[in-house]
Amino acid sequence: MIDVVVIGLGPAGLSAALKLAESGRTVKLVAKGEGGFQLSQGTVDILGYSPERVTSPLAAISGLPGGHPYVGIGADKVRDAVLWLRDTVGDELLVGDLAENYVLPTAVGAMRPTALAQPSMVAAHQASSYAVVGVRQLKDFPAELLAGNLGCQVAWVDLPARKEVDSSAHMFARAMDDPGYARRFASAVAAVAPKGAVLLLPAILGVKPGTWRRISDQLGRPIAEVPMQPPSVPGIRLHDALLAKFKAAGGRVIIGSRVVGCKTAGGRVASVTVAVAGGPRDLRASDFVFAPGGFASGAITVDSRGKISEPLFGLPLTQTDANAVVGPDYWAPHPLFEVGVETDDAGRAKYDNLYLAGDIIAGAERWREKSGEGIAVATAVRAAESIMGGRA
Amino acid sequence: MSARSEQSKHLRERLNNELKRVSLDHCVKCTLCEQYCPVYPVTELFTGPKFVGPQAERYRDGDSVDHSVDYCSSCGTCTVVCPQGVKVAEINSLARAVMKVEHGMPIRDRLITETTIMGKMMTPVAPIANAVLGNSLARGVMERVVGVDRKAPMPTARSQTLHGWLRSRPKPTNKPTRGPVVFFHGCAGGYFEVDAAKKSIEVLEHIGFKVLVPKQGCCGLAHQSNGLFDRATDQVRALVTQLRSAGTDLTIVSSAGSCGGMLRHEAHEILGLDDPELLDVGTRTRDISEFLMELHDAGELPTDFKRIDLRLPYHQPCQVRSQGIGMPAADLLRLIPGIEVVESGAICCGIAGTYGLKKEKYEIAQAVGKGLFDMVAATNQGVVACDTETCRWQIEKSTGVRTVHPVVLVHQAYGLS
User: Fold this and answer.
1) Who among B284, B296, B322 is closest to A256 (CB)?
2) pTM for this one?
3) A243, A253, A276: best mutation site toward chain B, by most B Cβ within 10 Å?
4) Those residues with Cβ within 8 angstroms of residue A225's Cβ, 6 or more apart along the chain or in another chain
5) pLDDT band for position B188 (50/70/90)?
6) Do B248 and B184 sit in the same domain of this protein?
7) Which chain B residues have a beta carbon less than 8 Å from that of A170?
8) What is the CATH number of domain A122-226?
9) Does a structural domain hold residue B157?
């Protein structure tokens, strides 16, 4: 009775699950925990460096070497997939046209290229000058460092989210959804904010997508949210929006249980085994999307002797000896992080009905080239479309 | 060595060997547990699961210094959402048990956990018991002397227990076509929430099962979440023996949302019990909605439901979510034509078993539940569904809206009521 089981709740798993559910498939999404977008900047990178900084991500895709996850998909399909995501969440959450990357300041004042960003962030792109305002009770936001690296002025406001000396970004964002607090915050900022074409504020301007506009309107000058550490408020917005859409489309979700095994027959996956409280359950389905992440989530492991493996399905990896792909130079490229699984043009590996999406796929050091969400969404949409019958 | 320090040493060893070493260092400080914690955002008295768990635990070697762990409600959400497999809730439950052994515990925590004794004492004098619990003077005394908040929800005593009903009801007329299952109703189902238990039995019988209902006591969950591990262990072991007396290879179907979780994982993971009998019972236990949805996924659930036109707020209790089974009650209710299920989206109703009864935590529990209560008020058409007894009392008391087990609506849709 279940058409597709999707494993993973990050940008790849959520995108594949939503696309399939919207096409009328019965989809069950299984994840060992929360994560994904909340651990990101809340933007969608497609290609930021290759290896020099990329201006047009779409144009640069055609220049990528063979073996890169984008190459088998092609620039047009990458664009279609990412635009589908943008239009699905709407322009209160993601803007950008893929022809040109935004270049936006990080919380430490480095400039980072990304393809789609939230409307609350993009005023910072190509601004002629900046100003920064930090919050004394938000210790995770290093306003002095940001301003110092941008060479602009900084000021502080003293406005606790609640009665404590140090609150998280999420706590501030929750407070900000109360219009009274948002008004006090904007007034406090207006009283101290230095001159500058764009005022940079920590990304705490509401968990709800529209809250930042109230603050911007009251300030009456261009502002831009600067993303912070996880759980990132802009990431939470994207995660919540996609999960809500998946559930509204009839999707079913299991969170907090690990997929620990599978049963296969005749070159196909018949079921995956989920370790729910009390014991294993076999989830049968016609097709499976495997979007578990890579090294960071533990989907690909390295043992103490340097053997790299994918423990769940035993998928073949592009490299199984970590000693061969870890170099001595911290700043140099790390081929280890390109290790993963190669798929066929439909996104499959090892089994006829097992489709891969996201970080598990080999061929890119995502955090270096800034391509994580783009690869996730493009491979997720490929997996979903292959299952829906458009199989190459 | 005194019995107390012996007990503390044992708990500390468990905390160290079973939880700290195998899971503490997996914490990468992503702080997602804090994002989803229901208590942390509403009170400064609780510094959040990450701080009292994976961080403070490193400093608890000499003495349990951080008493804020007592403000954890044991909802288990931090463990559910952790993407790195850190057993945050389990670490915090054990740390609290150590603290209570070393620093003593209020007599109140020993009293409010004795649910079966309460049930046995209240049933024969139900009208009097209900009158006393409804009396503000009596509740004021109870608050001052025992520490149970005067506004906290209390169960309603029934004049007939579930087993009283089972003995006196007419025998079911339809022949079982599917073989036997064991029914686990929990102490609340036996004494207070008798209606949900009866209807569960009737639904299972209606779709062809023979339902065996062995005599059964409390699962010990309330004791466990108050750090009374010895008493909890005795209780859950006795319950396991009782449930196994009905058969050792039958599925056990539970209408007690959180008590099922005690059998399935908490007794093993928090109390540290490895008894093969417990693990056997845990493996065979299914929440009733989960059981019916497993039948549905296998194409074996009759869906000749009568239409019920109803917009129905549904709240999944934290301790059902922590079983990692998805949201089977919402899936099941959506099979009934006419029902529009509105998921609460709330992490917890606040009560968390006995947490919200305590006078020092009552306001916190109400703040935790506020989003849920507002959502119920905005969406209900006279009824709310929720799988666990104390959560139903909390929602009903705080919103004034009738709150039922999801099976009550399934019972109605099958034309049984």
Assistant:
1) B322
2) 0.94
3) A276
4) A118, A120, A121, A201, A202, A203, A204, A205, A212, A233, A234
5) confident
6) yes
7) 34-35
8) 3.40.50
9) no
